[in-house]
Specification:
Layout lengths: L10 H12 L15 E7 L6 E7 L2 E2 L2 E5 L10 H8 L2 E5 L4 E8 L2 H14 L3 H10 L6 E6 L2
Antiparallel strand pairs: 1-2, 1-5, 3-4, 4-7, 5-6, 6-7
Length: about 150
C-alpha cells in the first residue's frame, strides 16, 4: 500500500512517519515529547483513493489496537476516521514490520473498556472527551484486529 502516498500536511507528522518507517520502527517512536509510543496506521483516503498515514498513540491489548479519533477534543472528527469507515482495511506498523488489520468502531461496554485502556495510556483523552462533548461530539473509538 505504498503507491500514490500523500504525506500529512502537518509537517511534524509527515516527518515523524518518514523517520519511523525509514528506521524500521527504531526512531521517532514516541509522540513528540510525551514519551508515549506510537504506531503508524496506513489507509486509503475515501475521496482521493490515495494512501494516507497517521501516527497514533499505541494502545494495544492482546494484539489489537485502539484508534481514538480524538482530534484533540475538536468539534469534528478527524478525516482519517471517515477514511476508516469507508475502507476498514489498514496496515499498522508497531516496530519493524507492518501487519494487516481490519478496523471496526466499537460502542457500549466494549467502547468503555477500550476508552479506559486509552486513557490509561494518555490521561488527556479525558480532557478531550469533555471538550468534544461541549461541542456535542462523542469521540469515536475504533479497534484494529489482525486480518485473518
Amino acid at each position: 500500500m505504498a503507491e500514490n502516498y500523500i504525506p500529512s500536511t502537518i509537517d511534524w507528522v509527515a516527518e515523524q512517519i518518514a523517520e519511523y518507517e525509514a528506521s524500521g520502527g527504531t526512531r521517532a517512536t514516541t509522540l513528540r515529547d510525551t514519551g508515549i509510543p506510537i504506531i503508524v496506521v496506513t489507509m486509503r483516503g475515501q475521496r482521493s483513493g490515495a494512501v494516507r498515514k497517521i501516527a497514533l498513540m499505541r494502545v494495544e491489548h492482546e494484539g489489537c489496537y485502539a484508534l481514538v479519533a480524538s482530534r484533540g477534543g475538536a468539534p469534528t472528527h478527524p478525516d482519517w476516521y471517515h477514511n476508516l469507515l469507508a475502507d476498514p482495511s489498514v496496515s499498522i506498523q508497531d516496530g519493524a514490520t507492518p501487519q494487516a488489520f481490519t478496523v471496526r468502531e466499537v460502542d457500549g461496554a466494549e467502547r468503555d473498556l477500550w476508552w479506559q485502556r486509552s486513557v490509561d495510556v494518555f490521561a488527556t483523552y479525558d480532557d478531550y472527551r469533555v471538550s468534544a462533548g461541549e461541542a456535542g461530539r462523542t469521540i469515536p473509538v475504533l479497534v484494529a484486529e489482525p486480518t485473518a
